[in-house]
Amino acid sequence: MAETLFEKVWNQHVVNETDDGSVLLYIDRQLVHEVTSPQAFEGLRIAGRKPWRTSASVATPDHNVPTTGLEHGITDPVARTQVEALDSNCEEFGITEFKMDDIRQGIVHVVGPEQGLVLPGMTVVCGDSHTSTHGALAAIAVGIGTSEVEHVLATQTLIQQKPKVMRINVEGDLPAGITGKDVALFIIGKIGTAGGTGYAIEFAGSAIRALSMEGRMSLCNMTIEAGARCGMVAVDDVTIDYVKGRPYAPVGEAWNQAEAAWRTLQSDDDAVFDKEVHLNAADIVPQVTWGTSPEMVVSIVDNTPNLADARDEVQREGWTRAFEYMGLKENTPMQEISVDKVFIGSCTNARIEDFRAAAAIAKGHKVADNIKLAMVVPGSGLVKAQAESEGLDKIFTDAGFEWRAPGCSMCLAMNADRLDAGERCASTSNRNFEGRQGAGGRTHLVSPAMAAAAAIKGHFVDVRNWKENA
Amino acid sequence: MQAFTTLEGLVVPMDRANVDTDAIIPKQFLKSIKRTGYGPFLFDEWRYEDVGQPEMDCTNRPIRKDFVLNQPRYQGAQIMLARENFGCGSSREHAPWAIVDYGVSCVIAPSFADIFYNNCFKNGILPVVLSDAEMDVLFVETESNEGYKLNVDLAAQTVTTPNGQVFGFEVDEFRKHCLINGLDDIGLTLQQADKIRTYEEKRQQEAPWLFV
Ligand code: SF4
User: Which pTM does this prediction carry?
Assistant: First the structure.
């Protein structure tokens, strides 16, 4: 029978299925970080359990790590306790960890693919919603809660209900300046933050195939912002080329065998989806969020919406509250909105290609006077090293950006990097919720190039015209 | 895990769509390595004038009087009404930990975000999905009747209003079974250890690169 990509990977991982439709799914890889794991390890200890297969899990601290002044270690005692707890738990249970002083350390969702820890066709979990990122490699990658982290550690499986499958087809050529991030925001703007609830999404179409691996990761990363269980892209040469030579990728005969298997990870031509969405790549203009939910997004050439255009009362109330929180009015041109801080980083956009795009904009310019802080935070130690070898750090620092050490940083402001109340930020992260980047902080989600351009101009601008207005 | 069978409890209405887990429990509380103690910080930014910090004593913090959880009539609520896509965003299980620690063990909404929905069952919270029309009835009745209580019966899969109106809801059999009996699903899964081992052996033949 014809199968979708999702079904192929799913079916290969079913250990047992019960009559009520709940499935015991085998998990190939678990990524672990310091925030959602301590209670899981504690649970194992209390129950006297051991990890089922230690080599399946790999850990790295990311959420709490400082991105500056690393020579002083973590000065926040609570954060330090959590990172130390990760170190000691990994040691006790025999789990490989890339610690803070390891060049491989970084944001789990950057580190996993970079190390080849995530391979096509795998099932991947992490106690973090943005695990969806790894679907870019045709893996089923789902974010889970701490109880499930413990469940996977103890049993190497997860109890799941099979989701429905949606295919989002983006056809045509993406216009210059349009990135995976814009595609993600555009899709969320179309289907809404609950549009994917109950679904696994496959991203397909010529525009998706034309994306680099980094672009696909940014896109899949934000699948969770559309409410979906996971997002996936089928295997093609881009995938294979990306994986080849990664430290944990197979080599020699094992590689050949793996590659042959991975090449089959495509939806069959006659596979049936529960839902299909068709979008035209040519319609996508650089995206900027204006509100407090990723679906509150418009094109850079547009204005904030009019309350009168809300779909219903619930949405109108949501918009009203968002305007108030964001300190914005309806029908305001996005390009007139000025920002205070700029953050280029996070598991959505802290890979080498993201920095190349931002540096291309920043090169030869200076950060505008009204910008209090513009920071670039690499996704991993290796991304940092690569960027430095290409001289990107120099371009950023010459322009007045701060070049930091890897971590989640101002994506969620668990460390010292945060917005103060009322501050407005152009951010390449994935969530613009109230308080996400600091209590009272105002977040606008954009692509790396758009963030860099906002830093230089002091307000949002259309990067498609960058040459002219440079 | 705490079992959930039936609950007759005071209802608090959280009349906002897309309530995310950052709002339910802000990030600074994620630094704790415990599962308990989050209740006083539930909805911290909406509930208090100041910014909460882990471990702080909340008894004398300035509260936002108009926030629903601070209204005297809703003190002691055990059931929360919510709007669409409740619990979206971060997978943090600290969100259900905060809800249950606060004393709420049933959330009723027209839809939930997947991960949050799943996390509820692991923590003795029953998430109930009712239609928008049914939710509208419950919101109106709760807001217009002080002391409004609902009766939630998991075995019968019903929510009953004080005037006897009954709303049925769906719940997956396995989750229902675990919640009613307060079962630890790791223990249950380990009863299938042989199946997991058999699967691994077969898979190791087919895809050896997954097991290095
Ligand atoms: S970068 Fe942000 S979204 Fe990504 S894992 Fe870290 S905190 Fe979560």
Answer: 0.93
